[in-house]
Amino acid sequence: RELPENLGLPWTQIEEYLGLPFFQDGRGLNPLLQNYWMVIHPPIVMLGFALTAIPFCYAIAGLARNKLVEWIKPALTWSFAGIMILGGGLLMGGAWAYEALSFGGFWAWDPVENASLVPWLTLVGGAHVMLVNRKNPKSLFSAFFLILSTFILIIYSTFLTRSGVLGDSSVHSFTGDGMIEQLMVFLVAFIALAIGFLIRHTRSRWIYFSLALGLLVFGFVLDKVILFMLIFVISSFIVLIWSYIKYFPKAKEEESLWSREFWLFVGAMVLLMSAGQIIVKTSLPVFNYLSEPLGGFFTWFADTFNSEDARRLATGSLAIESQEAAKMAYNKYQIPFAMFITLFMAFTQFLRYRKTPFKEFRKAILLPFFISIGFFTLFFFIYDWGQYFSKESFGQSFFGLSMVLLLLTSLFTIIGNADYFIRILKGKFDHAGASIAHIGFGMVILGALISTGQSEKISSNSSSQDVAQFNEAFNNSEDLFMFQRDTLLMGDRFVVYSNKFKDGINFVYNVDYYKSQKKNYQTGDIVFNQKTGGFFKAKRSHEASANFLFQFEENWEPVFNLDNIPNNSVRRWAPFEISDKDFALQPQIQLNEKFGNVPEPDTKHYLHKDIYTHVKYGDLQLDTLDEEGYQAPNFHEIAMVDTIKLNRSFITLDSLRLDTNMARLGIKDTSALMINSFVTVHLADTFFLANPQTLLSQSGFESLPDKVDNLGIKVGIEQINWETGKFKVSTALHDSVNPDFIIMQAIVFPLINILWLGSILMVLGTLMAIRYRLKRERK
Fold first, then answer.
1. Where are the beta strands (DSSP E) in 561-699?
2. Concatenated DSSP letters for 723-758?
3. What local confidence, expressed as pLDDT, does residue 668 receive?
4. Is 343:409 a contact under the CB 8 Å cutoff?
5. Hey, which of 68, 194, 508, 713 has its CA 20 to 30 A from 186?
6. Is 684 left (phi over 0), alpha (psi -120 to 50) or beta?
């Protein structure tokens, strides 16, 4: 009742308004969320969020008590616990998206997903910098900054999801709950707390706290909260730089290039840049919101320097891209970041702290590097990564190069850390937590890269129907139109849409997959080839090739005269014919009046790939057939000579004739009347006649429909209103001429199980590292 749009409404004056009937029943849980992953994913992510508070508190305590190094040891274990729990929760969300959503993937770069990922990235970077500083405190400011930023980013993610600023840019339906100013105060409080304690001088710290509080108070008093928050953020950024320069010790000499701490620090900075790019792009709606008080300044800047971005800021209209465009924009930057991170993971463990003799390092790294090159070459040619260099534009080529290099570095991470575990650690699990976690991370990246970069939509439309006529978003190269009981070739299999049924709120569609085998043609067989648009006759018996034009001269000759060839002897050419049943899938559509109907996919899992299927369009009614196979009738109210459109036919009621000779008709009731109706059914230039009858007796109307067998149509006169001259006409189609159909999409995701196995190893490895750290602390 405190929402601005509800202020002053009558029900808001009632103290116990929740007792009103229309507040007693909520919308319920979105059907998409009624999934077992969604029982696990949110509380695990929330636990990961909560765990970031503990390192934050240790960092604040270290600053407050001037113990700049001592806080690291107790905070480190909690940091890795947060990495494990939050990372595992994020991956569970990916598993839910892959299983329950129909976009065909596990990550969509949605703002709410990003708001969970960014703190994880900074926490990983912070934990690794803490590892460096526990023994050799050279980059303490970075450790404090990353750990403090992680918890502040959690608060910021709360602001994003609860304030309503993402309402137009996120598929998660978050709306404002009237708390935007409270959330801003909450965020400001923690930013002020963190930066205030980074100021090492007590008086300066309290001056800064007073400034923050003063700006906040003035903002509320003058109703300029956004403007004063902007001033606070800018001044806090200046104070942050000043405190780093003035109060934190700087190393007298740089770390050695071939030292572990140097590359751990570089890796943390790359993670920070990755997080920065994601959070800046995610925050575009926030920039639109915050730019409102500075509209005049941005207008002047745009006019002076001809800046389109400043002009969009002036009007609060920074472009919020489509989901597909945003996905590509994120990938463009995040793939190179991932490439560097996986490269550092591959070799950093082979380095010693402080300094490593280069010859020793080179000797250790050469074996896993050359093994990685071998696997990279194998993957490159098996999955045709050269396709990413087929574009002429530099941007596409650079993107393709990044993907190919990421393939190499992710393999290098897996093999390098496996080699370190076997050769250096001698298989000792007590020390292997980091190596196993790194192997898992490399597998997550490799599995994501191959499964998405090499995914293939195999559902190219092989029917005669154009799917675009049903929806502009449908595409014949990606979506398959299937009549019920039709058999169509899809990829290297045949598919049959067999039937559907209703299960609770779900319409379930049974799709059967059959194996294929090479088709054999005999001498004299006549075929129609769709690509060439011609008829051909087999010269000799042969097994079909993959392409009709292969060995065409030896196998086929054109046919120009079809007059003497029976229609049922001509078949469409195909390289395969149906064989044994392979498996069945049951994609479904969930029914929900409040949230809208949504498709839910079904997937066939193999060790080396997944075949992922979902229904993009399906009829949401169950057909009931009578004993003759006719579907439930439709009823029409028409006058004489009116026309009804049915399927591709037109039905016209032409005339009536009364028949009173009941004895001739074999009817004992001599008082009855038989009304003969004469109906014309026309399809294109062909006309058919039907004679539905209506028996009028003392017991009422009795309809005696007539059928047009050639068209599979049944017509009946159900009722006659003599006063208005209107007729109630029933029409029904035979199931054979009006079969049910679906539009379906199927995608093959190769090697996606590498990603899921990597997820388990990443969590398990982090858990092993935590266990070893606790064990060592007890000693």
1. 570-572, 576-585, 588-590, 598-600, 602-605, 609-618, 634-639, 643-646, 649-659, 673-683, 686-690, 693-697
2. TTTEEEEEEEEBTTTS--EEEEEEEEEETTHHHHHH
3. 64
4. yes
5. 68
6. left
Give me the pLDDT at residue 385, please.
75
- Print burial letters for 348-359: b (CB count within 10 Å at least 16), e (below 16): bbbbebeebeee
Contact 149, 118 (CB under 8 A): no
State residue 170's pLDDT score: 63
Q: Do residues 636 and 731 touch, judged by C-beta distance below 8 A? A: yes
Contact 122, 75 (CB under 8 A): no
Q: Is 339 helix (H, G, I), strand (E, B) or coil?
A: helix
First to last CA, the chain: 57
The residue written with tokens 């159909």 in the block is: 741
pTM assigned to the model: 0.82
Residue with tokens 């009632």: 14
Question: How far apart, in Å, are the Cα atoms of 19 and each of 2, 178, 429?
Answer: 17, 21, 59
Averages of pLDDT over runs of 10 residues in the chain (779 residues) are 78 83 72 81 94 97 92 94 96 91 82 91 96 84 95 92 72 65 87 92 88 84 78 88 85 79 93 94 81 75 78 70 75 93 94 88 93 92 72 61 92 95 89 94 95 89 82 88 87 89 89 91 85 84 84 85 70 84 92 80 93 90 79 88 82 82 63 81 81 81 85 87 87 82 92 95 95 86
Shortest CA distance to 148 belongs to which of 66, 65, 248, 63? 63
CA distance 211 to 239: 11
Amino acid symbol at 127? A
| Residue 534, φ and ψ in degrees, nearest 5 | -130, 170
Phi, then psi, of 451 in degrees rounded to 5 = -65, -35
Helix axes 53-64, 180-198, angle to 10 degrees: 40
Residue 193 identity: L
Q: Give the distance between the most distant pair of CA atoms in the chain.
A: 120
SS3 content of the chain, % helix, strand, coil (to 5): 50, 20, 30
Backbone angles phi, psi at 97, to 5 degrees: -60, -40
Asked if 490 and 746 touch (Cβ cutoff 8 Å), the reply is yes
* Cα separations in angstroms, 67 against 70, 73, 204, 252: 5, 11, 19, 21
Q: Under a CB-based contact definition with an 8 Å cutoff, are residues 716 and 692 in contact? A: yes
